[in-house]
Design brief:
The chain is of the alpha+beta class. It folds into 2 domains: about 120 residues, 2-Layer Sandwich (Phosphorylase Kinase, domain 1); about 130 residues, D-amino Acid Aminotransferase, Chain A, domain 1 (2-Layer Sandwich). The protein has 8 helices and 16 strands. Strands 8, 9, 12, 13, 14, 15 and 16 form a 7-stranded antiparallel beta sheet that branches. A 5-stranded antiparallel beta sheet has the order 1-2-3-7-6. Strands 4-5 form a two-stranded antiparallel sheet. The N and C termini lie far apart (about 40 Å). The relative contact order is 0.17. The N terminus is likely disordered. The structure holds adenosine-5'-diphosphate (ADP) and magnesium ion. Adenosine-5'-diphosphate binds next to strand 2, strand 7 and strand 14.
Length: about 325
């Protein structure tokens, strides 16, 4: 084990009822319509969770989400109540003793009823969208212009929703299916909000030398009727961030995320991408931590250790 693994967290332990263990986050019930979302350092690739945690990853995801949500004031309403440990202890005294286990990696949020559609916005054609386009000339079933090359910027960003699969891979669906599932009013609302948040994110990222190629949002209904942006927002786990100075259409791009993990696994031709996963070498773990810290630094202009979480009270 490398030194830094001492503080990395695979499974979180918090003295509240655990209601869901996701690929990355453990969700605890707080009562009064609130949840504590604790981001572990788990990393998944090809929908398989690896055995080695990535030190600092959970912190980066949580603090970066808070930084973006703070900047999104006036663009959309969201679920975050606090990610400041003092504030959280004040509101949930039962968490005082276990503070070390969750501080800096946790968000106290409004509990919502999640909308069962993942709201993906793509400004550039990459990943599963590139695969679909290459084989059928479409994106989410809708035709795109001929002659696009991999990673090319689209004329305008495209809303490319996906089903939120309980198990297995998410599946891209056409907008018409979102309308069938949720009704046209909600479908349009989700699309408009997603475009607004993407535009906001892409503009700020660009100012920091980063291309926001695509990103995925989730929304949820608060019991009071509001539609809130939920989950993680504009993080390297939910977005493709490309260094603008290295951007070159016509090929896959370097991305500031868990790419070292994916590259390592891709080189292992004998692994069939189903559990159990191979062990990650220390070197790959270290490189991945560095990528997460780098995207945090580049976007926020602050080292993670110097970052003061915004207050939402
Ligand atoms: N405010 C919220 N209310 C209810 N559920 C939420 C909220 N924010 C996020 N979630 C859910 O919590 C989970 C986040 O944990 P994560 O590890 O990302 O899970 P997953 O493996 O499902 O992506 C997601 O399933 C997301 O839909
Ligand atoms: Mg998730």
């Amino acid at each position: 084990m490398s030194e830094s693994d001492a503080t990395a967290v695979l499974d979180t332990q918090v003295p509240l009822p655990l209601i869901y263990r996701g690929k990355v986050r453990d969700i605890y019930e707080v009562g009064d319509g609130r949840l504590l979302m604790v981001a572990s350092d788990r990393v998944s690739a090809f929908d398989v969770i690896l055995r080695q945690p990535i030190p600092r990853k959970g912190e980066v995801l949580t603090q970066l989400t808070a930084w973006w949500l703070d900047s999104l004031h006036g663009v959309t309403e969201h679920h975050l109540l606090s990610c400041d440990a003092d504030e959280i202890v004040d509101q949930v005294p039962a968490l005082r003793e276990s503070r070390e286990a969750w501080a800096r990696r946790s968000m106290l949020v409004h509990r919502t009823e999640p909308v069962l559609v993942e709201c993906v916005v793509r400004g550039y054609i990459s990943g599963s969208a590139w695969k679909e386009y290459r084989s059928s000339g479409t994106l989410a079933g809708e035709p795109l212009p001929e002659g696009l090359v991999e990673s090319q910027q689209l004329a305008t960003p495209i809303f490319s929703p996906a089903t939120k699969a309980q198990t297995g891979h998410d599946e891209n669906i056409p907008f018409s299916e979102v309308v069938n599932l949720l009704g046209s009013e909600e479908a349009n609302r989700l699309r408009e909000l997603s475009f607004a948040v993407y535009e906001h994110g892409a503009t700020i990222a660009k100012e920091h030398g980063i291309v926001l190629a695509d990103t995925k949002f989730e929304f949820g209904h608060h019991p009071d009727g509001r539609l809130l942006l939920i989950d993680e927002v504009l993080t390297p786990d939910s977005s493709r961030f490309w260094p603008a100075d290295l951007y070159e259409p016509g090929q896959a791009q370097t991305s500031l995320d868990k790419q070292p993990v994916r590259d390592f696994l891709d080189r292992l031709t004998e692994w069939d991408k189903s559990p159990p996963p191979p062990d990650l070498p220390d070197e790959v773990v270290r490189e991945t931590t560095d990528r997460y810290l780098e995207i945090f630094r580049r976007l926020t202009g602050t080292e993670l250790d110097d970052f003061q979480p915004p207050r939402f009270g």
